[in-house]
Amino acid sequence: MVRGLVKTVMLGLLWSQSASAAVVLMYHHIDASTPPATSVSPEQFVDNLDRLAAEGFEVVRLDELIERVRNGVDPRQKLAAITFDDAYRSIYEVGLPELEARGWKGSVFINTGGVGETGRAMSRAMIVDAHQRGHLLLGHSHSHPHMVRQLESETEQQWLERIQRDIETAHQQLGQWLGEPPLPWLAWPYGEQSAPLRALVKSMGYLAFGQQSGALDEHVDWQNIPRIPVNGLHSDWSMLRDKVLALPFPVRTALPADGVTREGRPTLTLLLNGDWRRRNIQCFAGARRVAPVVRFSDGVSEVTVRSQADIPEGRSRYNCTAAGTDGRFHWYSWVWMRRVGEQWYVE
User: Fold this and answer.
1) pLDDT at 232
2) Vertex 306, ends 303 and 310: CA angle to 5°?
């Protein structure tokens, strides 16, 4: 047990079942002709929206959802926001009109350097029009880099300064197009982030959004806000429903500080207030079940998760769930970014 850290966590961090909760869904292409790993077909997208409505979800724009989470919403309430990453034309031509047909608004994270570059990209005029129609346009960096990758020639300070310039370039460019500054919010390109990067954007006054499943409450890491990735491989409602109905997993500390690793079988340690030994915590490394070790001491549960087989090179996830109320599950997802030796994985 990490006793010194446990005592720190306990100070002023008493979690209650009345914590607020909401979920954010994340899409890329709405197109049957693009790769399934980053796409859903228009039919799959429409089915997802229909299912949300049938489940009784209130779908709001992302800024409203964040405001309501901060103010405290009932965790039993079904509250969702729809977001899109990258400036794909199919978002403008298919995704946003489908939301508008239901009286909903979407939020698009735009990598400004890609706007208008190819036939699949939104134009500046489309971005301005989407803004005027009431959708939320936000930054997704300028060049869409792998931000966690410090160049061999760079010091840490130079690396962070390069990333800050890229974020600020996107913010300024988008502000010029919209005629007003966008919110200082960022979606991490590829969902990749690390402790130094989170500290950087926090110092810049930014909220930042990831690409890992989970629900929000007021204790969420505001520089790594979960969003449920939806694509052609994971768009069926039978697979999505438990994630969309998720309750927050009240993790107060996760160790290590970030998921960049060279280990084949890395260990994740989660600290949660209260006794979670009888909450049927189940964890998975990809599709493989991993038996977590749960210890309880001094009012805090320590959950230790370690895969019994090597995780793949590149991005992968540990997912943990625990029994909640009304047939719903608490859900927590952790992203690993495994590199082998000094080499970064090929995208």
Assistant:
1) 86
2) 165
